[in-house]
Design a protein that fits this description.
This protein is α+β, with helices and mostly antiparallel strands. The chain contains 3 helices and 3 strands. A hairpin with a 2-residue loop joins strand 2 and strand 3. It starts with 7 loop residues before the first strand and ends with a helix.
């Protein structure tokens, strides 16, 4: 499996995908306020790549409905 095929994203990558700061993304993840499940692996927090892609896809679809 190559890096581009990784099944999870770190919080920094999630923040970038959501267009928010890394610090805010960590805060939301710690408080359980991200709209996707966070997987805790020791001190590391990751998110399923499929979950973030689904969230972004659904957000785009809702935005299209409003137009």
């Amino acid at each position: 499996m190559q890096d581009s095929e990784c099944l999870t994203l770190g919080i920094s990558s999630v923040a970038k995908a959501l267009g928010i700061s890394r610090g805010l993304c960590y805060q939301l993840a710690r408080r359980g306020e991200l709209p996707i499940p966070v997987i805790h692996l020791g001190k590391r927090m990751v998110v399923s790549r499929q979950a973030i892609e689904r969230l972004l896809r659904e957000g785009n679809e809702r935005g299209d409905e409003r137009s």
